[in-house]
Amino acid sequence: MAGIIESVPNVSEGRRRDIIEAIAAAFGAPAGTHLLDVSSDPSHNRTVLTAIGDARALEESSLRLFEASLSRIDLRYHQGQHPRMGAVDVLPFVPLQGATMAECIRLARRVAERVASRFDLPVFLYEEAAQQKGRSDLALIRKGQFEGLAAKLKAPFWKPDFGPARPHPSAGASAIGARKVLIAFNVELATDRIEIAKAIARKVRASSGGLPCVKALGLYLADRQHAQISMNLTDYRTTSMLTVFEHICSEAERLGAEVAGSEIVGLVPRDALPEDPIRALKLLDFEEDKVLEVNAKKKLGAESPPPD
What we know:
With 308 residues, this protein is an alpha+beta fold. It has helices at residues 17-28, 55-70, 101-119, 138-142, 149-152, 194-204, 241-254, 277-281, 292-300; strands at residues 5-7, 10-11, 33-41, 46-53, 88-95, 123-127, 174-178, 183-189, 214-221, 226-233, 259-265. The protein has two domains: 5-178, Formiminotransferase-cyclodeaminase, Chain B, domain 1, CATH 3.30.990; 183-287, Alpha-Beta Plaits (2-Layer Sandwich), CATH 3.30.70. It is built from nine helices and eleven strands. The strands form two sheets. Strands 1, 2, 3, 4, 5, 6 and 7 form a seven-stranded mixed beta sheet that branches. Helix 1 (17-28) packs antiparallel against helix 2, helix 2 (55-70) packs parallel to helix 3 and helix 6 (194-204) crosses helix 7 (241-254). The model has no long low-confidence stretch (mean pLDDT 95).
């Protein structure tokens, strides 16, 4: 049996339900691809899709994803709180049951080459699939966002791995890579003071000397009128969800704010959750289907845990 790979594309649309549904349907259509989750955020104006399948199925799904997204998303008119440089902003492949990182790297590079050629789109390889030293970090690749992309691509260092050294007029550029399991985890504050969220984000993110394997931004959510710390936990076994949540609670209290709750974007491995996660993390709208193994079992009839 072919190894099971997880694909977690992020597309720059989180508000128009008809477009989100069309993109999700295209992405999940190929035989062998199992669409597990579609998580949209109107403030971020972003949707995270999660699917599992073998390499062959996910390669076809990726091409359909780009075709559906590029025909419907125009970044010249896009506004949202989350940084973005592309209509399909990022597309990672993650090895799960029976799959290896080497297989995901090969898949990422193959998809990147085909996407760039078919759609005349600049594509960067990132994380484990990166081919150029200093270009593995997604945040660095995305710095400057869509609006700064034309100037950025003029620098020799930022020549894309595949595709033209100029932005696609409406779709910008994309990052395609291979990585370990990542948890997208947001903590909402009971305040609209974005300066508090930004201060807490600086305190917890690794690049500012905070917690290892934590990336964090302080944002304001207009639809909720609350500030938020939006995070990626790149190695939950090094820094757990509970550890970062408790640090945020402590720092919020020090700054005169309270934590209103937290949310998981996409899916989460079972062993990443603390005991009684709803209480321990003040999780909002958490359901059992948010657990990767539970969701995958419903689709495949067998559990698909992340690798050890």
